[in-house]
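Let us practice reading a record.
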Amino acid sequence: MKVEDISDTVIRKTKDYLPFLSRLCLVATFLEDGVRMWYQWKEQSSYINHHWNCGSFIANLFVVYNLFGQLIPSGLVLAQRFVKPSVGVLFGVVFTQTVGYGILFDVRFLLRNVALGGGLILLLAESMGEAKTMFAGVPSIGDNRPKNYMQLFGRILICLMFLTLLGEINFDNFFHEIVRAIEIIVGLPLMICVCIGYKTKLASFILVVWLFLINIYLNPFWAYSSSKAMHDFVKYDFFQTLSVIGGLLYVITLGPGGVSFDEHKKNW
């Protein structure tokens, strides 16, 4: 009960900042990838041209779309301007990258891209607002069903992304793998709670704190030289984990929605 009290206090005191922080964490992976397109323009263009044999014009067009199609919509989402079309463009980027980089044939990365849609769905859910009725001053009898189901799908896909981040335990670094094993033991039950909407805000709060700490420990991309391939792999995992944190912060901000145990408990 004490942990619940602490989480309630923290959430209450940060409620004015949580929506922006949620959006920032969710689009962080798009911002990072957009910046990477600029700094690795030649490499990205060459890869697409070599992979698809599509010519330099199409390859450069792909890089341009992924550069501006991530940075501009992410900025608009943070500013809460044109959120729905911006989310639509980001969905388009996820789709084009899935096809362009051949991710369709890599199950783990495919699931990550699908799961990334969970955060985008939560962004759409926030922009939908509350259900309205025909009569002024009369509360709505039914749920805002589209929003509730979007929140449910968003929660499920955020949980899926968490599962793709777990990785394999290989014991190359014993302490490192102990931390990863604890991540699985602690994280899985809490993610199940988030997925079904049970003690949702408490579970999300604990996961946000936990994932933030282990993300710093397990994915310190700044410790690797930028010329090494490991730098990009670890950096990718770091920002993907930030997206999971952003999704969980959104769950705290929006609540679990109507399709959840927490909501049904109110009717018991």
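A brief commentary: The mean pLDDT is 83.
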